[in-house]
Design goal:
By secondary structure, this protein is an alpha/beta fold. It has helices spanning 19-28, 42-45, 73-83, 93-100, 171-177, 240-247, 251-254, 261-270; strands spanning 7-12, 32-37, 50-53, 88-91, 115-118, 128-136, 152-159, 161-165, 181-186, 207-211, 217-220. It has one domain: Rossmann fold. The protein contains eight helices and eleven strands. It is globular, with a radius of gyration of 17 Å.
C-alpha cells in the first residue's frame, strides 16, 4: 500500500487574505493541503497532520492583531494537537494569533508572555511592507529544518504590528539561550540589523520568528509564501537571490524554488517526507 503524504490544514479566519498562496507553497513542498474554515468541525481538524495559520487581518485586527482569533475554539484544538507533537506554523497574522494564544514562546504553557507591538519606524507609522533579509538562528524547527543555521534568506514582511516585545524581565535572554529565537533580521551580507530598515519594525534584538521549546510551533512575521518562487524575488534585491533572479533566462528558471519555499519544505522534512521537485 502506498503511504499517503502528510495532510496540512491552512486555517482561514475571517479577514485573512493569504490562505490560497500559502496552500500553493505547501503543495509545492510536496504535502497535501486544504484550506480549513475557522468554524469547521474540530473532529475533522484533528485528522490533519499539521497546520499553518496564514497572514491577513483576522477580525479586522480589532483590539490587537490576532487577539480575537486567538479566542476561537479552533485555536484550543490547535493547542491540544501541538501538545501531541503536531507542527504549527503561524505567519504574520498567524504569528500574532499564536502569541495571543500563549502557544509561543510556550515556556509556561498557555500563558501570554510576549506580544507583537506596533511597528517603530522613523518618520512614519502604520502598515509597512518591504523585502527583508533574515538570518536562520535555529535550523531544527518545523519551519527551518530545510535551511542551515546561519543562512541569510530574503523574505518580505507586511504588517503594522510585528515588533516582538516582552515585559517579562529576562525572557528575551532565555529565548536566545533556549534556541527558541528561530529567525532574526539582518543585512544582505548577514550584518546585524541594528536599525531601520534592516530591522523593519524595531523588534527587540531584531527577532523575526520564535518557537516553543520543542520546536514544533513557530511564529514568524515574514511571509515565506510570497517568496516561494524565484519570479517573486525582486531583480534589484541585494545578495545572491537577487543575482539569481537577474541571471534567470527562461520560465523554467523563473518558476524554480524561491528563498521562502524551504519553510514549507521544512514541514515535509518534519514528517520525513522528501520535498517535491518544483
Amino acid at each position: 500500500m502506498t503511504k499517503s503524504m502528510p495532510r496540512i490544514a491552512v486555517i482561514r479566519f475571517p479577514g485573512m487574505n493569504c490562505e490560497e498562496e500559502t496552500k500553493r507553497a505547501v503543495v509545492d513542498a510536496g504535502l497535501e493541503c486544504d484550506v480549513f474554515m475557522w468554524n469547521g468541525p474540530t473532529s475533522e481538524l484533528v485528522e490533519y497532520d499539521g497546520y499553518v495559520l496564514p497572514g491577513g487581518f483576522s477580525y479586522q485586527d480589532r483590539v490587537r492583531a490576532g487577539s480575537i482569533a486567538a479566542k476561537d475554539e479552533i485555536v484550543d484544538c490547535l493547542f491540544e494537537e501541538a501538545e501531541r507533537g503536531k507542527p504549527v506554523i503561524g505567519i504574520c497574522n498567524g504569528a500574532q494569533i499564536l502569541l495571543e494564544a500563549g502557544m509561543v514562546p510556550g515556556i509556561e504553557r498557555g500563558r501570554v508572555q510576549m506580544g507583537l507591538a506596533t511597528n517603530i519606524m522613523p518618520d512614519r507609522d502604520g502598515y509597512y511592507t518591504r523585502w527583508t533579509h533574515l538570518r536562520v538562528a535555529n535550523d531544527g524547527t518545523c519551519a527551518t529544518r530545510a535551511y542551515e543555521r546561519g543562512d541569510v534568506v530574503p523574505i518580505p514582511v507586511a504588517h503594522a504590528e510585528g515588533r516582538f516585545v516582552s515585559a517579562e524581565k529576562g525572557l528575551i535572554e532565555t529565548l536566545f539561550a533556549n534556541d527558541q529565537v528561530v529567525l532574526t533580521y539582518c543585512g544582505p551580507e548577514a550584518g546585524e540589523a541594528r536599525e531601520f530598515p534592516a530591522n523593519p519594525n524595531g523588534s527587540t534584538k531584531a527577532i523575526a520568528g520564535i518557537s516553543n521549546p520543542e520546536g514544533n510551533v513557530v511564529a514568524m512575521m515574514p511571509h515565506p509564501e510570497r517568496a516561494a518562487r524565484l519570479y517573486q524575488v525582486p531583480g534589484n534585491l541585494a545578495g545572491p537571490w537577487g543575482a539569481r533572479k537577474r541571471e534567470a533566462r527562461d520560465a523554467e528558471a523563473m518558476f524554480g524554488p524561491g528563498p521562502g519555499l524551504p519553510v514549507m519544505s521544512s514541514l515535509a522534512g518534519f514528517f520525513g517526507a522528501e520535498p517535491r521537485e518544483v
